[in-house]
Amino acid sequence: MTCVLRAIGRGFDVDAFLQDSPFSRANVFHRGAPRLPGVPDGKQWDASGFNLPVSEAGFNLSEQIEDAMRLLRDHADELRRLLRFPGLEEVCLDFGIQRREVAAQTAVFPADLLWQAGALDIDLVVTHYAVADEYGRTRES
Question: Where do the structural domains in the chain lie, given as residue ranges?
Fold first, then answer.
């Protein structure tokens, strides 16, 4: 996994926002639609929104951070437009990292990223993923 920008809201008209947005690579979901395609009787989305790929760095956190800072810098005006859009409830940058078999695992975010995201009212999230080897066993880093 890698870093994504997630925007979500129960009353968020995601299609109207993306119609005039440079965030065309976004993965869109709609309130009431099935969470899993092909499983219409399964769980449904509680809100509408999108996930925008921010980085293709895999589990490399330092590269994800660089890509996120570039997005915040280069698209600050579009992010402000997003944050003012009716029905929007939450925007976050979700950083994916590999879970390790250690007593403590630390992820450090530079002050500049915190400042840029905070100035735009964007939350930071870290999602830890267990990664399996070719035999299905969880690997250590």
Answer: 4-129
